[in-house]
Design brief:
- The complex is a heterodimer of chains A (about 300) and B (about 280).
- Helices cover about 75% and strands about 0% of the residues of chain A.
- Chain A is mainly α and about 300 residues long.
- Chain A has a domain of about 170 residues: MetI-like (MetI-like fold, Orthogonal Bundle), CATH 1.10.3720.
- In chain A, helix 4 packs across helix 13, helix 9 crosses helix 11 and helix 11 runs antiparallel to helix 14.
- Chain A starts with a helix and ends with a helix.
- The mean pLDDT of chain A is about 85.
- Chain B folds into two domains: about 55 residues, no CATH class; about 210 residues, MetI-like (MetI-like fold, Orthogonal Bundle), CATH 1.10.3720.
- The longest helix of chain B is centred in the first third of the chain and has 31 residues.
- Classes of the chains: A mainly alpha (about 300), B mainly alpha (about 280).
- Chains A and B meet through helix 1, helix 2, helix 4, helix 5 and helix 6 of A and helix 1, helix 4, helix 5, helix 6 and helix 7 of B.
C-alpha cells in the first residue's frame, strides 16, 4: 500500500519534471544563443582586462591583476569621456522625451492632414544614423553652405562652425532630432489607449483641459514615458555613429564607447587596458540597468 | 489613427485650428533636413556647395556616379547585397528563435518567466563596445572577419532580446481558450503556433520584424570594426563617398537617399503597427 503511494508521488514528480522541460524547451534555443553571443564574449573581456596586452606587438599576453584598473583612475581622458557620456545620454534622452511628448499631444487631436503630418514626423527616426550625421554636418551645420548658418546670416548675425565649436551640442541636436519621433510613437500609443468615456466624463464634470491632462492623461502616460526613457537610454548610451560622422570624436564629444573603440580595435591596440575601460562601462550600465529594470518590473507587475 | 481622444480638450475652433497649424509647421520643420538632402542629391556639386539654393537645374548625374562600380572601390551593388543578406537572414533567425521563446514566456509560461525576460532585456544594457575586442579576436580566430556570417550572427544577437520582449506581450494577448481547444484537438506545439497563434499575432510579428530590419540595416559600428575590407554594408558605402579630393556633397546626398529609401518606405507603410507594437508590446 504505502509502496504504491511512493510510486505514485515519484511518478507525479517525474511527470512534473517532464512537463517543466517541455515548457522550457522552446525557450532554450533563444536563451543559449543569447548567452553565447553576449555573455561569453563578456567573460573574455573580463579576462583581457586583467592582462597587459597589445595586439600590434608579438609580446605575449601578461597577467597583471588589477593594474589596468589602477591606471584607469588616473586617466584624465577616461574621466572626460565618462563625463561626456553622462551629459550626452541624459540630455538627449530628456530632450527627446519632452519634445516627443509635445509632438504626441499635438498629433493626438483631429486636424486636416493628421496622418500625413505624423508620417513627416516619424521619418527622422527611420533615417540611418550615418546619413543623419552627414546630413546635419554638411548641410545644416556647415559654415558656407549649411542651412542653419544661412538662416543665422539672414537674421544679421555672424555664421559659426557648429560641429567644431560646439561638438557636444551638435551631436545632441541630431540625436534629439532622431529620437523625439521614437518617443512620440510611444507616447501616442499611450494616448490612444485612453478610455474616451473617462475623458468625456471629466469634460461633463467641468474639468479644465489642464486638469484633465494632469489628473487623468498624465498618470496613464507614466508607464509609457518610463518605457521611452528606458529604451532611449539603452540605445543612446551607446551612441557611436553620430559622433564618428559629425565630429570624428573631437574632444568634447568623445563618449566612452567612442574612446574605447579608438583605444582598441580603432587603432589604439591596447586591448588589455581598453578591456578594463569596457568593464567599468558595463558595471556603470548595470547600475543604470538595475534602476531601469525596477521600472520595468513595475510595468510587468499588473499582468501576472 | 482616427483619434478616439481627438476631443480630449474641448476647445473652441480657432484654438483648435491654430494648434493644427502649429503641428503642421513643426512637422514640416522636422522633415525639412530630409527634404533638403533629397534636393541636394539632384544638384550638381557646384550648386550643392554654394549658398543654399532652392531652385536649380535638377540632374541625375550624382545617382549614376555613385552607383557606377569602380575596381577596388566598394560598389553600391555589393554593399546592397551584403546589407540585404545580413539584414534579412538575421531577422529570419531572430523570428525563428523569438517565436518559440515568446510562447514559453507567455502562453505556457515557464516558472520564473519574469526573470528570464529580465535576463533578455539586461543583455541589451551591455554596451557593444564591451565585447568588441573578444568579438574581433574570435572573428580573427574563426576566420570570420570581413564576412557576412559574422554580421548575421551578431545582428541576430543584437535584435533577439527586443524581439522576445515585444513578442511575449503580443502572445500574452492570445485567448487561452483557443490554445486549449487546439491542444484538445491534438495540435502539437508547432501546429498550435502556426494555426492558432500566428494569425492572431501577425501584426505584432510584422512590427517586430520591421524594427529588427531597421536596426540591422542602419547598424554601422560592428560593420565598420569587423568588416572593414569586404562584406561591407550600405552604411559603410555611404561613409565611403566622402572622398579627400574634390567636392562630394551632392554625391553623398544621392548615396544617402538610396541608402535610406528602403527603410523609410517600410517604416511609412507600417507606422500604425509600429506604434502599437512598440508600446503595447512592452506594456501589456
Amino acid at each position: 500500500m504505502s509502496q504504491t503511494v511512493i510510486d505514485r508521488s515519484a511518478e507525479v514528480k517525474r511527470l512534473q519534471r517532464r512537463e517543466g522541460w517541455k515548457r522550457r524547451l522552446p525557450l532554450l534555443p533563444a536563451l543559449l544563443f543569447t548567452i553565447a553571443v553576449t555573455q561569453i564574449p563578456f567573460l573574455f573581456t573580463l579576462f583581457y582586462s586583467l592582462t597587459r596586452w597589445r595586439i600590434d606587438t608579438t609580446d605575449p599576453r601578461e597577467f597583471i591583476g588589477f593594474e589596468n584598473y589602477g591606471s584607469l583612475i588616473g586617466d584624465k581622458f577616461f574621466r572626460d569621456a565618462a563625463w561626456v557620456s553622462v551629459q550626452m545620454t541624459v540630455a538627449s534622452v530628456l530632450l527627446s522625451l519632452i519634445v516627443g511628448t509635445g509632438l504626441a499631444l499635438l498629433l493626438d487631436r483631429k486636424f486636416v492632414g493628421q496622418g500625413f503630418v505624423r508620417t513627416l514626423l516619424i521619418t527622422p527616426f527611420l533615417v540611418m544614423p550615418v546619413v543623419a550625421g552627414f546630413l546635419w554636418k554638411s548641410q545644416m551645420f556647415n559654415f558656407t553652405n549649411g542651412v542653419l548658418n544661412w538662416l543665422i546670416r539672414q537674421a544679421g548675425f555672424e555664421g559659426t562652425e557648429f560641429a567644431t565649436k560646439y561638438p557636444l551640442a551638435s551631436v545632441i541636436i541630431v540625436l534629439v532630432w532622431q529620437w523625439s519621433p521614437f518617443m512620440m510613437l510611444i507616447v501616442l500609443a499611450g494616448l490612444q489607449g485612453q478610455d474616451a468615456s473617462v475623458l468625456e466624463a471629466a469634460k461633463v464634470d467641468g474639468a479644465t483641459s489642464w486638469g484633465t491632462f494632469r489628473q487623468i492623461t498624465f498618470p496613464q502616460l507614466r508607464p509609457y514615458l518610463e518605457l521611452g526613457t528606458l529604451l532611449g537610454a539603452i540605445y543612446l548610451i551607446q551612441v557611436y555613429d553620430h559622433i564618428e560622422v559629425i565630429t570624428g570624436g573631437l574632444s568634447s564629444s568623445k563618449n566612452l564607447p567612442f574612446y574605447i573603440a579608438q583605444r582598441s580595435v580603432g587603432g589604439g591596440n591596447v586591448f588589455g587596458l581598453a578591456s578594463a575601460y569596457s568593464i567599468v562601462v558595463v558595471i556603470a550600465s548595470i547600475i543604470i540597468a538595475n534602476i531601469g529594470l525596477r521600472v520595468l518590473s513595475g510595468l510587468l507587475e499588473d499582468d501576472s | 489613427m482616427s483619434s478616439k481622444t481627438g476631443a480630449v480638450v474641448g476647445q473652441n475652433r480657432p484654438v483648435s485650428f491654430l494648434l493644427g497649424l502649429v503641428t503642421w509647421v513643426i512637422g514640416l520643420l522636422f522633415f525639412f533636413p530630409i527634404f533638403w538632402l533629397v534636393l541636394n542629391g539632384f544638384k550638381d556639386e557646384l550648386d550643392a556647395n554654394s549658398t543654399p539654393k532652392l531652385f536649380f537645374d535638377p540632374t541625375l548625374e550624382q545617382f549614376t556616379t555613385v552607383t557606377e562600380s569602380q575596381a577596388g572601390v566598394l560598389s553600391f551593388g555589393t554593399a546592397f547585397t551584403n546589407s540585404m543578406v545580413a539584414v534579412l537572414v538575421s531577422t529570419f533567425f531572430v523570428m525563428i528563435l523569438a517565436v518559440p521563446a515568446a510562447y514559453s514566456l507567455a502562453i505556457r509560461p515557464v516558472r520564473k518567466w519574469r526573470d528570464v525576460l529580465f535576463f533578455f532585456i539586461s543583455t541589451k544594457f551591455l554596451p557593444i563596445v564591451g565585447v568588441i575586442m573578444p568579438l574581433y579576436i574570435l572573428g580573427q580566430t574563426l576566420d570570420l572577419l570581413n564576412t557576412r556570417t559574422i554580421l548575421v550572427v551578431l545582428y541576430t544577437g543584437m535584435n533577439l532580446p527586443l524581439a522576445v520582449w515585444m513578442l511575449r506581450s503580443f502572445f500574452a494577448e492570445v485567448p487561452k481558450e483557443l490554445i486549449e481547444a487546439a491542444q484538445i484537438d491534438g495540435c502539437k506545439l508547432f501546429g498550435q503556433i502556426r494555426s492558432v497563434i500566428l494569425p492572431i499575432v501577425a501584426p505584432g510579428l510584422a512590427a517586430t520584424a520591421l524594427l529588427c530590419v531597421i536596426f540591422a540595416w542602419n547598424e554601422f559600428f560592428l560593420a565598420v570594426q569587423l568588416n572593414p575590407q569586404s562584406a561591407s554594408t550600405i552604411p559603410q558605402w555611404v561613409a565611403s563617398q566622402e572622398s579627400g579630393r574634390g567636392n562630394f556633397l551632392a554625391k553623398i546626398s544621392a548615396a544617402s537617399v538610396l541608402a535610406t529609401i528602403p527603410v523609410v518606405i517600410a517604416g511609412w507603410v507600417a507606422q500604425k503597427r509600429m506604434i502599437r507594437g512598440l508600446a503595447m508590446g512592452a506594456i501589456k
